[in-house]
Amino acid sequence: MADKLPQTDGRAIEWRIEKGQVPYREALAEQEARNAAIAAGEASELIWLLEHPPVYTAGTSAAAGDLIDPRFDVVETGRGGRYTYHGPGQRVGYVLLDLARRGRDVRRFVHGLESWVIATLGDFGVEAWAVPDRVGIWTRDIDGSEAKVGAIGVRVRRWVTMHGFAVNLDPDLSHFGGIVPCGISEYGVTSLARLGVPVAQEAWDEALQRRAGEFLAVLSESHAA
User: Fold this and answer.
1) Closest Cα to residue 8, out of 211, 224, 225?
2) Hey, which residues are catalytic here?
3) 48, 53, 136, 158: which could join 94 in a potential S-S bond, CB 3.0 to 4.6 Å?
4) What percent of the chain has pLDDT over 70?
5) What is the rounded distance in angstroms from the CA atom of residue 125 to the CA atom of residue 106?
6) pTM for this prediction
7) Residue 154 in contact with residue 162, Cβ under 8 Å?
8) pLDDT digits (tens, 9 = 90+) for 24-38
9) What is the pLDDT of residue 3?
10) Residue 219 to residue 225: CA distance in whole angstroms
11) Partners of 92 in the beta sheet?
């Protein structure tokens, strides 16, 4: 499913929503091609929501010791960060935007992504937050400890962003046991289902769409400044 999201600058962003699973390597190749096309002015920006079959992805800071059990395909991605798991029950959002016309502020872009996910989680009654020294989106697990419910990882090439975020709706959490997620061993991983907040894929996608304008407005403020 594809749609267009109107923008204040008169352009439109393609909003692509996948119902089925997309193999990670296929999605990565599509992102790389779209990144080049956006930078060349040959394609519109893209927000792409999807789900992957089980896969471990390695960022540019991935440490060999963080790959404990390579039970799934392991893909080097070029994004920032360390090892991350993607799989069924986890909703991934790839955000390909042209920062050359949105303020060239990578930090603001990342903070905007974090705020977008946190606000959307709040719409389902889940309090979440970002931690400056820890990558990801955090919440309280069922035992009261702090745990990761979402991952953030981006790459910027030719001032066009790639990758984005992933949120655990109802994945098999045992699959995270093959890696040290994002290199952080002292905290666990949780999901909305584990927290007793079942959220269907369609409901999550719709909530993200409702909040997208706020995220893009932050980037517009950066450009105006």
Assistant:
1) 224
2) 182
3) 48
4) 92
5) 29
6) 0.92
7) yes
8) 999 999 999 999 999
9) 52
10) 10
11) 50, 166
And the tokens for 121?
A: 């989680």
At 224 the pLDDT is: 54
| Per-residue pLDDT at 219 | 86
| Helix/strand/coil (H/E/C) assignment for every residue in the chain | CEEEEECCCCCEEEEEEEEEECCHHHHHHHHHHHHHHHHCCCCCCEEEEEECCCEEEECCCCCHHHECCCCCEEEECCCCCCEEEECCCEEEEEEECEHHHCCCCHHHHHHHHHHHHHHHHHHCCCCCEEECCEEEEEEECCCCCEEEEEEEEEEEECCEEEEEEEEECCCCHHHHHHECHHHCCCCEECCCCCCCCCCCHHHHHHHHHHHHHHHHHHHHHHHHC
Name the stretches of the chain with pLDDT < 70. 1-11, 221-225
pLDDT at 214: 95
Q: Give residue 71's identity as a one-letter amino acid code.
A: R
Q: Please name which of 123, 116, 212, 132 lies closest in space to residue 166, comparing C-alpha atoms.
A: 116
pLDDT in the model for residue 30: 98
Report strand pairing: 188-189 vs 46-51: unpaired
- Say what the pLDDT of residue 222 is: 53
Q: Which two tokens stand for residue 165?
A: 């975020």
First-to-last CA distance in the chain?
Answer: 35
* Pairing label, strands 160-168, 146-157: antiparallel
